[in-house]
Amino acid sequence: MENTEKPVQNQKKKRSQSDKIGRLKYNQQLLKQTLSEVEEVKLMLRTIFAGLKGSFNFEQSLIERVACGDEVDKEILQLLFEAGTPGLLPKDIATKLEKLKITRHQVSRRIQRMNKRLEKEFGEQIAEQRGWHWSLTSFALETIGQTEKK
């Protein structure tokens, strides 16, 4: 005997989560979850990097890629490197970069922004203030100096 009878009740097709709460809200939840996972991975990378910092060789291109947002930031770093240990006043940097139409306030803000970016990634600062002057830190001088020697 063959059992060819159909079931008494039809099996209902279950709705997906996107059908239940809406596609837009579901996509937003997925995006939020993905972003939080990416932040966790970044935190783990920073932790690993902090442990290996002593054996890691930094290069000028890496520092510039992380800290500098554009060509103006690179020009500021180059001027600070040329100035050496005493450093430069923000107004002096602004006058040397007159063709880029940058003010002394913008110079200070850009340097602080570069410090913040580098601090976030490597735990180091690129420039420090000595009185009113800005000068490169020993970390930045070593990194740029090694690249210049090569």
Keywords:
150 residues, mainly alpha, Arc Repressor Mutant, subunit A, 2 domains, two-stranded antiparallel sheet, 7 helices, 2 strands, 63% helix, elongated
CATH homologous superfamily designation of the largest domain: Winged helix-like DNA-binding domain superfamily/Winged helix DNA-binding domain
The CATH topology of the largest domain corresponds to Arc Repressor Mutant, subunit A
Low-confidence stretches: none
Helix share of residues? 55-70%
Number of structurally distinct domains: 2
From the N-terminal CA to the C-terminal CA, the straight-line distance is 88 Å
Q: Specify Rg, calculated over alpha carbons.
A: 27 Å
- What is the residue-mean pLDDT, rounded to a whole number? 87
The helix count comes to: 7
Describe the structure.
It is a single chain. With 150 residues, this protein is mostly helical. The chain is elongated. It has 2 domains: 36 residues; 93 residues, Arc Repressor Mutant, subunit A. Strands 1-2 form a two-stranded antiparallel sheet. The chain is 63% helix and 5% strand.
